[in-house]
């Protein structure tokens, strides 16, 4: 009688188990999992889930993928809370001197004139707002006039064609100071107030109007007159 040849079972190499969760929240062996015995695919309690190479369990990794980053949520909330509109355009009060000979106000910057008529100042301000193509790459222009009230000396405008992805709102205000002195104030800001860069429309408009008006005087005159509108 022939002796039966003894067949030795092949050992399965030891490897790190990797588990994945099914729809019921139970852990099963993934394709990389080599069970201890063939056919051993029993469900494993979720408490026994081994860590993946990134240090997270399958359940934790799934939650991380589905959870929006906290920074994006914070930025979205701040963006919604910090949005401005055309209704926020308003004049400010004189607060001191700024660079380039401008007058600083609580809402923007200004220049001071003496000797020009109110009609001349209004014509220059409105024409400049309608036609100026600024040199700054951040904004587009010319401005779109939203309202122009000559009697009140107020021009409100916007620039939707900016390169920073947010609309600019611009206000131009003409006011009497003391005697013949007049203040031309420009206030400009982004629709998204959390934008880190300063809005260039203020200095661009003031520089253009100062070049067109022959009656611009040093800004110190407004402070010396003691006028605080």
Would you write up a description of this structure?
- With 229 residues, the protein is an alpha+beta fold.
- The chain has 2 domains: 49 residues, no CATH class; 139 residues, Alpha-D-Glucose-1,6-Bisphosphate, Chain A, domain 4 (2-Layer Sandwich).
- It has 5 helices and 10 strands; from the N terminus they run ββααβββαββββαβα.
- The strands form 2 sheets. Strands 3, 4, 5, 6, 7, 8, 9 and 10 form an 8-stranded antiparallel β-sheet that branches. A two-stranded antiparallel ribbon has the order 1-2.
- α3 crosses α4.
- The longest helix is centred in the middle third of the chain and has 14 residues.
- It is elongated and about 125 Å long.
- The relative contact order is 0.15.
Topology of helices and strands:
Elements: E1 19-21, E2 27-29, H1 58-66, H2 70-81, E3 94-97, E4 103-105, E5 109-114, H3 118-131, E6 144-149, E7 154-159, E8 168-176, E9 181-190, H4 201-212, E10 216-217, H5 220-224
Antiparallel strand pairs: 1-2, 3-4, 4-5, 5-9, 5-10, 6-7, 7-8, 8-9
Structure summary:
The protein has two domains: 19-67, no CATH class; 86-224, Alpha-D-Glucose-1,6-Bisphosphate, Chain A, domain 4 (2-Layer Sandwich), CATH 3.30.530.
């Amino acid at each position: 009688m022939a002796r039966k040849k003894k067949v030795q079972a092949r050992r399965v190499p030891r490897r790190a188990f990797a588990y994945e969760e099914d729809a019921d929240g139970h852990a099963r062996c993934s394709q990389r999992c080599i069970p201890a015995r063939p056919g051993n695919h029993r469900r494993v309690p979720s408490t026994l889930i081994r860590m993946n190479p990134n240090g997270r369990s399958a359940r934790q990794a799934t939650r991380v993928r589905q959870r929006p980053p906290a920074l994006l949520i914070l930025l979205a909330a701040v963006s919604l809370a910090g949005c401005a509109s055309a209704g926020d355009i308003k004049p400010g009060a004189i607060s001191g001197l700024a660079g380039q000979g401008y007058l600083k106000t609580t809402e923007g910057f200004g220049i001071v004139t003496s000797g020009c008529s109110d009609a001349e100042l209004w014509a220059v301000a409105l024409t400049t707002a309608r036609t100026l193509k600024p040199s700054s790459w951040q904004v587009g222009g010319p401005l779109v006039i939203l309202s122009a009230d000559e009697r009140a000396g107020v021009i409100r405008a916007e620039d939707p064609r900016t390169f920073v992805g947010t609309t600019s709102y611009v206000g131009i205000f003409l006011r009497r100071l003391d005697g013949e002195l007049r203040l031309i104030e420009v206030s400009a800001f982004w629709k998204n107030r959390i934008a880190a860069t300063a809005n260039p429309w203020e200095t661009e408009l003031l520089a253009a109007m100062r070049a067109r008006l022959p009656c611009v005087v040093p800004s110190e005159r407004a402070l010396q007159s003691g006028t605080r509108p």
